[in-house]
C-alpha cells in the first residue's frame, strides 16, 4: 500500500493506494470516525460491483452501515440530489459525528463531498473513488459541488475528506472508454510537473492499459502526490493550482460546445492538451520534437472521437463564457517544456483558430 499525505494543518489527511484495499476498509474507516454509524453513498452501477464488499468489511469492524443510492450519471449532480440526501440524513437522525462515505466516480464524490460540507455545517467524509479519473483527480484537492442548469460545477465548497481510499482493483470493472478518459488526465500530470513521470508513462502504456495492479498503484500514487503537492501549496486556486487546468481551456470549450454529450471529460482534455502543445510551440516555448512526443503519447492511449464537426467560432464562444476566465481574458496553461508550465493569456483569435485547424489535421 502507498500513502500520500495531504498536508493542510489540522485538516491533513492520507490518500491510501493499493491492491485489494477494500479488504481493509473496516479498520481504515473505524480508525478515522468517532460515531458508530456511517452512511455509504453510491450509485446502483458501482454498488452492484463493489458495494457489498464495503458494507461487509465495515460491519465486520463493528460499524453500523446505512447505504443510500443516488442515480447514476452527470445529470444527477444537482441540488435536487443533494436535497434528497439531506432529507434521508435528517430522517435517519444523522448527527455531527456521522461520517459519509462516497463510493463511486467523480459525480458521487463531488455530490457527497458537498453534502458533507453543508449538512449540519459539516460532517466528516471519506472518499472511495472507483474511476481512474476520480482516483487521480476529483477525490484529491477538496473541491466539492454540483451543477446548475446554467453551468457545470457552479455551486460548491472547498471541503477536505478525512481519508481517500483508492483500491486499484475497483478499476477492473470500469468500461474501457472511462478508463481511457482517465488516462489522459494521468498524462497531464507528467506534462505539467514531472518529465520523468511522463517518460515512465510512455514506456509503460501497455501495462497500464492491461490494468496491471502494481503499475496502476505506482501511476495513481504519483498523480495523487502531484495533485496533493499543488493543492496543498494553493488550496483555493489562487495561482499554482491553475496549472492543473492544462488542456482544459480548449477542453472545457469542446465539452460545452457539444453540450457535454460528444466527449468524455478526459477526451476533451486530450484535444485541449494537443492544442496547448501547439500553442506552446507557436509561442516559442516547446520545440517541434516535444510536440510530437506529446501527440504520440496522447494517440497511443487510444482513438479519440472526431472533433471535425465542431467549428472554431463555437469553441471560441464557449471559451469566452468559461468561468475560469479572468476578467476578459482567456487564460491558457502552456508548456515551457515537458514538466514545466507557463500561464499566458491575450492571444489573437486568428492564432487560436490556426491552432485548432492544426489539431484537427493531426487527429484525423
Ligand atoms: N472535484 C474535483 O476536483 C473534480 C475534478 C475533476 C472532475 N470532477 C468531476 O468528476 C465528474 C466525473 O467523474 P467520473 O469520470 O468519475 O464520472 P462518473 O462518476 O459519472 O463515473 C463514470 C461512470 O462510471 C461508472 N463507474 C464508476 N466506478 C465504476 C467501476 N469501478 N466499475 C464500473 N463502473 C464504474 C459510474 O457509475 C458512471 O456511470 C464530473 O462531474 C467532474 O466535474 C471533479
Ligand atoms: Zn480535468
Which structural traits does this protein have?
single chain; 364 residues; alpha/beta; seven-stranded mixed β-sheet; two-stranded antiparallel ribbon; 14 helices; binds nicotinamide-adenine-dinucleotide; binds zinc ion
Molecular structure report:
Helix content is 48%, strand content 18%. It has 364 residues and is α/β, with parallel strands linked by helices. The strands form three sheets. The chain has a seven-stranded mixed sheet, sandwiched between helices. A two-stranded antiparallel sheet has the order 7-8. It has a two-stranded antiparallel sheet with strand order 10-11. Strand 3 (37-43), helix 2 (44-60) and strand 4 (64-70) form a beta-alpha-beta unit. The model has no long low-confidence stretch (mean pLDDT 95). The chain binds nicotinamide-adenine-dinucleotide and zinc ion (ZN). Nicotinamide-adenine-dinucleotide binds at residues 43, 45-46, 49, 72-74, 77, 104-108, 110, 130-131, 133-134, 137-138, 141, 143, 153, 170, 173-174, 178, 265.
Amino acid at each position: 500500500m502507498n500513502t500520500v499525505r495531504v498536508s493542510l494543518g489540522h485538516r491533513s489527511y492520507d490518500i491510501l493506494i493499493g491492491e485489494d484495499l477494500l479488504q481493509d476498509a473496516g479498520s481504515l474507516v473505524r480508525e478515522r470516525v468517532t460515531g458508530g454509524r456511517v452512511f455509504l453513498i453510491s450509485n446502483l452501477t458501482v454498488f452492484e460491483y463493489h458495494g457489498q464488499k464495503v458494507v461487509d468489511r465495515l460491519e465486520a469492524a463493528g460499524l453500523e452501515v446505512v447505504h443510500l443510492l443516488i442515480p447514476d450519471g452527470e445529470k444527477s449532480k444537482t441540488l435536487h440530489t443533494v436535497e434528497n440526501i439531506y432529507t434521508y440524513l435528517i430522517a435517519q437522525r444523522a448527527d455531527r459525528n456521522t461520517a459519509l462515505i462516497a463510493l463511486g466516480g467523480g459525480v458521487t464524490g463531488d455530490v457527497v463531498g458537498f453534502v458533507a460540507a453543508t449538512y449540519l455545517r459539516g460532517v466528516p467524509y471519506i472518499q472511495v473513488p472507483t474511476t481512474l479519473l476520480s482516483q487521480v483527480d476529483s477525490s484529491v484537492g477538496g473541491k466539492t459541488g454540483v451543477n446548475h442548469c446554467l453551468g457545470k460545477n457552479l455551486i460548491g465548497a472547498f471541503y477536505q475528506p478525512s481519508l481517500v481510499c483508492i483500491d486499484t482493483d475497483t478499476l477492473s470493472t470500469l468500461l474501457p472508454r472511462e478508463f481511457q478518459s482517465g488516462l489522459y488526465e494521468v498524462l497531464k500530470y507528467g506534462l505539467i510537473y514531472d518529465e520523468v513521470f511522463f517518460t515512465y508513462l510512455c514506456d509503460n502504456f501497455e501495462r497500464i492499459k492491461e490494468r496491471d495492479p502494481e503499475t496502476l498503484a505506482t501511476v495513481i500514487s504519483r498523480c495523487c502526490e502531484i495533485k496533493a503537492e499543488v493543492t496543498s501549496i494553493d488550496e483555493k486556486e489562487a495561482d499554482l493550482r491553475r496549472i492543473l487546468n492544462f488542456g482544459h481551456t480548449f477542453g472545457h470549450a469542446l465539452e460545452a460546445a457539444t453540450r457535454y454529450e460528444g466527449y468524455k471529460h478526459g477526451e476533451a482534455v486530450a484535444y485541449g492538451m494537443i492544442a496547448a502543445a501547439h500553442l506552446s510551440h507557436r509561442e516559442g516555448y516547446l520545440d517541434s520534437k516535444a510536440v510530437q512526443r506529446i501527440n504520440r503519447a496522447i494517440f497511443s492511449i487510444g482513438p479519440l472521437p472526431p472533433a471535425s464537426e465542431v467549428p472554431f467560432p463555437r469553441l471560441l464562444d464557449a471559451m469566452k463564457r468559461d468561468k475560469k476566465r479572468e476578467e476578459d481574458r482567456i487564460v491558457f496553461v502552456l508548456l515551457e517544456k515537458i514538466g514545466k508550465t507557463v500561464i499566458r493569456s491575450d492571444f489573437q483569435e486568428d492564432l487560436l483558430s490556426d491552432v485548432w485547424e492544426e489539431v484537427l489535421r493531426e487527429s484525423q
